[in-house]
Amino acid sequence: MRVSMHRIIDLRSDTVTKPTAAMRRAIAGADVGDDWYGDDPTVNLLQDRVAELTGKQAAAFLPTGTLCNQIAMHAYVRSGHFVVCEAQSHVCGMELHSAAALSGVAFRRVPARSHGQLTAEDLERSLEPDPYDVGVVDLVVVENTHQLGGGWPAPVASVAELAAVATARGVPLYLDGARLFNACAATGATVAEYATHSDALMLSLSKGMGAPIGSLLAGDADFIREVRRLKILFGAAWRQAGIMAAAGLVALDEGHERLISDHENARRLAAGVAEILPGSVDPSAVPTNIVFVDVTGTGRTPWQWAECLASVGVLVTAVPGRVRMLTHRDIGPADIDAVIAAWKRIESASVTEPEKTCPPHAGDCGGGGRRSRVAEGPISPSAAAATADRSSGISVSRSATPGGRGNYTSSGLAGGSLRAVGNTTDSASSDPRGHWRHRY
Ligand SMILES: Cc1ncc(COP(=O)(O)O)c(C=O)c1O
C-alpha cells in the first residue's frame, strides 16, 4: 500500500476534525445576538440543551475546555489552596501555569496505580486533614476519560465512590469531561449519570464530537452565575457566539454513538502496530479513541517516529517514551490501514535499510537522511507546519525535542537537526520572546 502525498492522515488529536456540511449550514443560518448581554438565542438554546443533558440547573458556553477548567478552579479554589487530582491530569499538567497565573492554585497530585484511575482509598488519603490546618483542599478534579491514562473511562460507580469520599470531607468534585462523551460511548452510561456525582462538570464539543469550537460548564444556578461573571472578567464574553453554538447543537443532535466506531478504529490500529512492534501496545487496553505506542527499544525516539511518520503523511504526537495517536470522525477504516502500512514500512526500512530511513527534508529521524522508499515525497508544508495542537500543548518547531520535564513537545517536521530545548543553556539567548518571559 502506498501512502498518498495528497492525503494527510492527522492523528495528532481528535480536535482536528473539520465541521460537517450540516454544521456549516447551521453556522450560516444561525440566529444570533450579543452573548455579553446573554441574548444570543442560539447560545442560550445550546446552554439549555446541555443543562438538560447533564441534569444540572444551568450551563455556560465557553471557547475552550481549558477556560472551563480555569474558570471552575477560580470559582471553587481560593488562592494558595489545593486542588486534588490524579498526577497526570490535564489540569495539573498542561494547565499548571494557567492555574498558577490566573488563580494561585496549588495542586496535590495523586499518582494512580493504573490508567489514570484514582481509587476511593487514594482520594481518602489525599484528603486527610492537615494537623496544622495549613494545607486546605478546596476541590477534587476527576478527568474522564483520562487522556494520558490512554483514554481510560471511569465507570459511573467509581466516580460515585470518589464523590462519596469528597462529600464526606466537604470538598466539591469537578469533572473534567473533555472526553466524557467517549466515556459514555464506552461504558453505556449517560452524561447525566456521571453528572449526578459531580458538583460541576465540563463537556467539550470540539473533541471527537466534531464541532469546530466550544466547551460548556454545567452546574447549579449560583455556580453558573459566577461562571458568567468570570467569563467576562477573563475576557471571554464573546458576542455573536451563536454561529459556533449552532455547530455545537448539530454535534449534540448527531449524538455520541458514532464515537464507538472511533474506538473500534483505535483498537484495530493498536492491533496492527502491536503486530509490527510486539509489546509496544496492548490493544485490549485501548478502551476509547487514544492509542499510545511505547517505542522504547525500537532504535528511534518518539520524536523520530513522529518525524518519519510525518514524512509519509501521517501526523502523530510524541510524548516521552511514547507515540500518541487519536482516532476521530475524519478517520475511516482505510486510513487505519494506511497508518498501519506506514508504521510497517518505516519499521522495516530501519531493519533492512538503515541508511535509507528518512527523506532529507524530514531531518534526522534515525536513519541516514537519504530519500527513503517509505516516502512518497514531501508532505505539504502547510500541513507540516500547521501542527500546533493547543489541546495537548504540542507546538511543532524546527528544533523541538523532549524538554526533559515530562511536558509534551513534538518533532521538527521541516528539517534541521534535533536540539534539546527548555533545559539547555543556549536556548535563552535565542529566545524570541525576549523579556516577555519575565513579565509576571
Ligand atoms: C482532559 C482534557 N481537559 C481539557 C482539555 C483542554 O481543552 P481545550 O483544548 O478545548 O482547551 C484537554 C485538551 O485536549 C484535555 O485532553
Quick summary:
By secondary structure, the chain is α/β, with parallel strands linked by helices. It has 14 helices and 14 strands.
Structural overview:
The chain is α/β, with parallel strands linked by helices and 440 residues long. It folds into 2 domains: 188 residues, Aspartate Aminotransferase, domain 1; 224 residues, Aspartate Aminotransferase, domain 2. Helix content is 35%, strand content 13%. The chain contains 14 helices and 14 strands. The strands form 4 sheets. Strands 2-8-7-6-5-3-4 form a 7-stranded mixed beta sheet, with helices on both faces. Helix 1 packs antiparallel against helix 10, helix 3 packs across helix 9 and helix 11 runs parallel beside helix 13. The relative contact order is 0.14. About 17% of the residues have low confidence. The site of pyridoxal-5'-phosphate (PLP) has 15 residues, from helix 3.
Instruction: Kindly report the average pLDDT value.
Output: 84
**Largest sheet, order of strands side by side?**
2-8-7-6-5-3-4
What is Rg? Answer: 22 Å
Number of helical runs?
14
CATH superfamily of the largest domain: Type I PLP-dependent aspartate aminotransferase-like (Major domain)
User: Shape from CA axes?
Assistant: globular
Run of helices and strands: EHHEHEHEHEHEHHEEHHHEHEEEHHEE
Distance between the terminal alpha carbons, to the nearest Å? 52 Å
* Poorly predicted parts: 352-356, 359-428
Question: Could you say what the CATH topology of the largest domain is called?
Answer: Aspartate Aminotransferase, domain 2
Strand content: 5-15%
Structural domain tally: 2
* Main sheet specs: 7 strands, mixed
Q: What ligands can be seen in this structure?
A: pyridoxal-5'-phosphate
Would you report the number of β strands?
Answer: 14
Q: What is the CATH first-level class name of the largest domain? A: Alpha Beta
Decide which structural class fits the backbone: alpha/beta
